[in-house]
Each structure stands twice: as C-alpha cells, then as structure tokens.
Specification:
Length: 454
C-alpha cells in the first residue's frame, strides 16, 4: 500500500480580502463625507467665499473662457486659486453642467481617497497592520469627515500631498531614475494643488539624502535628486510662465499669499483674545474698496502682503501670545467658535447646531496614541526613514504661526496625525496581546535593514 500524502491547507491569497477592505473603507468614507456635506454645507455656494472663487474659475474653464474670474469690469485672468482643483472640477462641469452640488460631491470623493492613500503610505513605512489602522482612523476622523465640502483647495491639496509622499517613500525604498522623476512630477502636481507644497520637497531631499547614500554612489544620488527637481520644474514652470504672461508679474503658483496673510494678521485677530489664531476677512474686504481699489490682482496681493508684514513688525510684543494662540488652534482644532467656518455653519440647512463639538473629544482620544506613535517612529534602525510623517507635521507649524492655525491648515496634516495614532495604537495592541499570552518581548541589538535594501 502506498502511504497517503498528508493533506495540506491551501494558501489563501489575501489580495481579495484586502481589496474588499479597501473598497469598504472608500464606501464608508464617501457616505460619511457626502452626508455631512449635504447637511452642513448645503448645495449652494456662499457669495464672496473661497468656494465661490473656486466655483467661478471652474465654470469659466468648463465653458471655454479660460482660467479667469468674473468682476465688475468683466472676466480677467487670475491666479487666485491653484489650478489643479478648478481644472478637475471643470471636467465635471462639462459633463453635468454648472451644478455646485456636483463640485461638493467631487470634493467628497477626493476626501474619500485620503484613507486609501494614508493606508498605502503607512504600509510602506510601518507595515500592513499600521497601514490598515491609519486608513480606518482617517475614514471616521471627524475633521476629515466634516469639511471636504467646505475646504475645496485644502481637501484636494491634502490628497495630492499624500500621493506625493507615498511615491517618494517608494522611490527611496527602491531608488530608480524613473521613480525619482515620478516623485518630482507628483510634487509638482501637489504644488499646483496646494501652494505650500512648493517648498516641501526640500524636506524630502534632506530626508532622502541618507537612505539614498546607502544604496547609491555619490554621483547617482545627486543625479536622482536632480531628477526629482526636474520633475517639479516640468510641472510648475508652464503655470509660472502662464502667470507671467497673463498677470505680467512673477507668480510661481498663486496670488493668495497676501490675502491669507492679511486675513490672519490684523487688529481683529490680534486684539481680541478669543479671536487670536483665526482669520478675519473684514480688513481685507475693506482694503479692496479702499486702498486697494483699482489695482490689478498681482499688485493687490503684493500690497496686502506688505501691509500684513508691516502690521506684524509693528507689534513685536504680541508675537509670543499670537504664536501660542495659532499653535493651540493648530494642535487642538475646534469646529465651533471658528470664524473660518462661520459661513459653513450659517449656510446649514439641517438641525445640526454643532453644540457638541466632536473635534476636541476626538483629539483627546487620539492625541495620546499619536504621541506614542511619535516615540515609536523615532526608535529602531529605520527611525530616519520612518520620521517622514513627523517632519511634515513639524513643517506645517511655521505655516500656522505665520498665517493661521485654522482648520484648513490642520486639515493638510490630519491624515499624518492619524498615521502616527495608528502606529501608537498598533504598538499598544501588540503589547496587550503579548502580555495576555504570557510572552516577553526581548529587544535585539541588531539594527534592522536600511530602507534602501528592503
């Protein structure tokens, strides 16, 4: 008799399960965001708001009027908003017509991609469990759920930033010339989606220098960083040249810096302790009908920037208190009592009054895990590679100090905070499971392999 072979359990592929999990993550995120946008933001644009400018440029693009904005004197070329978001919205408007609700739903779809992007980025840095945790945390994060329908530029910019971070991590993990160029192209798109991203590649260059040196020679490392910069230039330079031709001024991405600086730094936001750290549009709107009346867009932005800096320089004794207030808003966001979302709440068509603010409660639960995750990311042989999320969060703190610690600024880094919270949560879970099973974790002395050899 022949000996029977033992039955072997077939190896099950996890690709189908992962695909179903990601699809469920996207579907739940979309339902939550679309529902909140319908209840809180409504389906009509508020005149004079940032969304109105975004909507106007998008519709002009859709009907063939170019990247222009309507004014009392007629349509004029503009660079008041980054171009990628209005261009995507214009494609939608061409298909469905000028329906503002479609633009809101598009932002909800883009916001629903953030959990998938942060999950992919987290998996590339910390492994599968942390990636899944970060995706699900971002799916139900109140800050990411409540505001995609109101913060158009910030939502699209955050998604582009996450995509660029993921591509950069993949490039540094396995350096190739094509991947370096692709990372540069991704950062160029991010810069044309959120102007702050124009300076963020400097952090990537500093961060990538050491890991790239572990797998490449000196000349190869410099060549790949050069390809990164080339990719950025290939995407951004045509838009900069367009601005130079249309506006007759050097505008790398947008003319919104002066306005944002002036709205965040004026007597209303510095003089009232309750309003410190937020924004106030009254001073800028008054200047448009006064000192800035009749000026072109680029000159208006330059005057606003100069006026804001003059105001800041004239009150050095207020700097510590203002910086502390802006950082407090950035670190501890609130949905109620924010002048940045006053128009959002004023246009609400639901019975939701936001008396119970979900953001502080969420921060109270997630912040300890995020701080624990920071500590874990700075330990081990891969701490340099895994420090990238923390570096970007720290990079946005000066932005909050100079401009405002509003929800829009915090929205740009909220997925990264969710990633660090997922890292801390997964580490705590592993410790509890290990302790319950009676095992002891012994830390080895051998360093983990560098990211370049992973």
């Amino acid at each position: 008799m022949q000996r029977a072979e033992p039955l072997r359990r077939p190896i099950r592929s996890t690709s189908g399960r992962d695909g179903a999990s990601w699809l469920a993550m996207f579907a739940i995120a979309l339902v939550l965001r679309a529902g909140c946008a319908w209840l809180l933001a409504g389906t009509r644009v508020t005149p004079g708001s940032d969304a109105a400018v975004f909507d106007g440029v998008s519709w002009n693009l859709a009907r063939g009027a170019g990247f222009t904005l309507e004014s009392a004197a007629g349509a004029h070329p503009t660079a008041s908003v980054p171009p990628v978001g209005p261009w995507l919205t214009s494609l939608l408007y061409r298909a469905v017509g000028h329906r503002y609700v479609a633009a809101v739903l598009l932002q909800c779809v883009i916001g629903s991609l953030m959990p998938l992007l942060i999950a992919a980025f987290g998996r590339s840095l910390f492994g599968d469990p942390v990636g899944r945790w970060s995706g699900w945390i971002a799916t139900v994060d109140p800050l990411l759920v409540l505001f995609p329908g109101a913060w158009f530029t910030e939502t699209t910019g955050c998604a582009a930033l996450l995509l660029a971070l993921f591509i950069s991590a993949q490039w540094v993990r396995t350096p190739r010339n094509g991947r370096a160029l692709g990372a540069g192209l991704a950062w160029g798109v991010a810069a044309l989606t959120a102007p702050t991203a124009l300076v963020l590649p400097a952090i990537v260059i500093v961060w990538a220098w050491r890991p790239l040196g572990l797998t490449l020679g000196g000349s190869a490392r410099v060549r790949q960083l050069g390809l990164l910069l080339l990719g950025i230039a290939l995407v951004v330079s045509p838009w900069t040249l367009r601005n130079a031709t249309a506006l007759r001024a050097f505008v790398p991405v947008t003319t919104g810096y002066g306005r944002a600086l002036m709205e965040a730094n004026n007597p209303a936001t510095w003089g009232d302790p309750a309003a410190r750290g937020g924004t106030d549009r009254a001073s800028y709107q008054a200047a448009l009908t006064g000192a800035f009346q009749g000026l072109d867009e680029a000159t208006t932005d330059a005057r606003a920037r100069a006026s804001a800096w003059a105001f800041i320089r004239g009150r050095p004794h207020d700097w510590p208190a203002i910086a502390a207030a802006k950082l407090a808003r950035f670190a501890w966001p609130r949905a109620t009592g924010e002048d940045d979302v006053a128009s959002l709440r004023a246009g609400s068509r639901s019975v939701v009054t936001m008396r119970l603010d979900p953001l502080p409660a969420w921060s109270l639960v997630m912040l300890p895990f995020a701080l624990w995750g920071v500590g874990r990311s700075l330990r081990g042989g891969r701490r340099w590679f895994q420090a990238l999320p923390l570096c970007f969060i720290l990079a946005f703190m000066p932005v909050a100090v100079v401009f405002s610690g509003s929800i829009g600024t915090r929205l740009s880094v909220e997925p990264l905070v969710a990633l660090l919270a997922a890292l801390g949560l997964e580490n705590v879970r592993r410790r509890l499971v290990t302790r319950r099973r009676g095992f002891t974790v012994v830390q080895g002395r051998r360093a983990e392999p560098p990211p370049g050899g992973a």
